[in-house]
Predict the 3D structure of the following.
Amino acid sequence: MTDQTSTPTAVSALDAAPPRPRWQVILIRPETMTFVLLVLAFIVSSSISPYFLDINYILSSFTLYAEFSIVALVLTMVIIAGEIDLSPAANMALSACLFAWTYQATQSMPLAILVGLGAGIAMGAFNAVLVIGMQLPSIIVTIGTLTLYRGLAQIIAGDQSIRLPDYFIGINNDLWLGVPVPVIIFVVVTIALAFFLGATIWGRQIYQIGTNEVAAQHAGIRARRIKFMLFLAMGFASAVAGMMTASRLGSVRYDLGLGGELQMVLMAMLGGTYIFGGRGTILGTFLAAWLLSVISTGMLTAQWLPATQLCVLGLLLIISIVATNLIYSRTQR
Amino acid sequence: MLKRHLLAGLAALGLAATFATGALAAHDFKVVYIGKNTGNPYFDSINGGFVDACKQIGCQYEFVAPATAEATSQIPIIEAQIQRGVNVIAIAPNSPDAMNQVLDEARAKGILVLAVNGDLVGNESHRDANILPVDFTKTGPNQVELMGSLIGYKGDIAILSATTEAPDQNTWIAAMKKTLAEDPKYKDMKLVATVYGDDQPEKSTTEMEALLSNYPDLVGVIAPTTVGVAAAAQVVQQRGIADKVHVTGLGLPSEMRDFIKDGTVKAFQLWSPYNEGWLAAYFADGVLNGTIKNEVGTKFDVPNLGSITIGDKNVMNTQAELTTFNADNIDQFNF
């Protein structure tokens, strides 16, 4: 947000073209496109199935996507900083397995939660050491750790599921003012991170690192430290998401969240985050998570063929990437 | 005269029509079958059973399946079906426990939940009943009887199985040995070897060839696995010894069709997935209309299947014995 509003001042200071009208600044943004697509998705979903338009159903369906969505919010910041993390879904599985395994061994829920969160942060730190400490490309490192974490989860859990106690099960059925708890957590995290990224000095530094890391370092920004923290945050968010998934399913298996990393990247891209870093917003990812949930739920309720559903999601991603690129090249180059 | 008959006929037709619609209303429930994944011919056959049964009963039936068979891929589909207001969810579960919560939610809304062709092992309380194709204790004796009928109940036979640890196969082989030893009908049949092809075509072929060279008097091979029976048939076909060595076992009609057509294999067995769909629809109809009590020990009649008994843990089998496929009926099956 802040880097966007500063652009007109910079331009006028150079005495170039007059500042763009405010309506144009608001309209020509990737999030606006995501929002329009979301409205369209609501209209289309309601028209293809008479069962879709039911606020309780839409909210409870979102609980299936809430865990990935929460991690996608943090992932958005990692991508803006010019890195990527493809290991969060595997992290979710391994931290949830360790959490359930500890509970089973000790019957102590606080200890189990501590172990789960600690494991998530440790996995994030391991990624960070390889990417930042050893200067390796994050895409390769996290493809490696995605396989490693999933493999470790399978070693711990085997082919069995680990049961959880009844009181821990069913976070998605807990309502607060009629809204499922996972949805509330997602909204709260969105507000917190949007404030952090859009209105704090650290948020602005993340954008600067992603735009030009060398220049950012010369300007005195501790790029390595900030990126390290972002990977730790990824680990923490993944562990929380893993436990939320465990609560929703009632048991933990090594294949928990399988393939989730692609959905998370999809949400960030749909929300207008620029894959090469420097651009993107939390609001965009927030809208994209709802877009993905609404479209998928709509097509499922209308009983479209799985192949058709995949084609629609693929087309959507391509449209959004083309549009994002066009918008950025027109407004900021 | 003619006119009066016609009028009477029309009146009768009208009566029949009112009666039919009246009957339809009670049976007009919505049932959905959720398969493991799309593009699986085995499920097309179960699907066919549902379609035909619902045509008879008058229910509305739909088939849906996720793109992949991973543990949680069926959850969003179940949620969508609850929202669509179906009365019956039949499912081939992709996981024994990942769907516990969402299935409970469905049952809390009054939906009848049936596991069809697979069960929630260890989590039976999260579904109402389970429909399996066949009572697996009959597989061994059925296979021995089929082999006996092919070779005139006389001569050396061998077994070509899957892996040494395969639990189903090992249960069936133990039952075959017991049947051969205890039933005097089979006293002239001698089991000379049991070999393992690991459910790999190459290894199964090698093992089959080794059997033929090691036991020149061999007259029959039972392969209670779809990979093994196809590999064994292939060897017999290539060597042209179908009149000397009889191959049978558990096979898929789609894979065995050519061997049946050219006479390499006279007959083999499996169960009919079609009947699972058929039974599930009739069972659902009975439970929803109060004519079938979903309790262990209940007996009820199903058209074409005869009397069905609800067994331990509310499990039902569509057939007591395996279905035998031969040149006469193979074209009716497409899975």
Notes: The longest helix of chain A spans residues 223-249. The longest strand of chain A covers residues 162-163. Residues 2-9+66-281 of chain A form one domain.
